[in-house]
Amino acid sequence: xxxxxxxxxxxxxxxxxxxxxxxxxxxxxxxxxxxxxxxxxxxxxxxxxxxxxxxxxxxxxxxxxxxxxxxxxxxxxxxxxxxxxxx
Length: 87
What we know:
Largest sheet: none
Number of helices: 4
Distance between the termini: 28 Å
């Protein structure tokens, strides 16, 4: 995403990234291997949440877009190094 989207498109996209990260967070914490198996992704999402301060508004997500997308990308990279966890 290059930052040239319309507010509506950006709102949907950023909200979706946020929701997907939190769905993943819940799944990692509830999974049979437990949260201790996923310390890096869980820590990345916790850092994101601390920065967002509980504010999921488009304005706040847009202000933290770099962190939000960076968190997603770091977790994707982490997941690629752990393929047995995602089959």
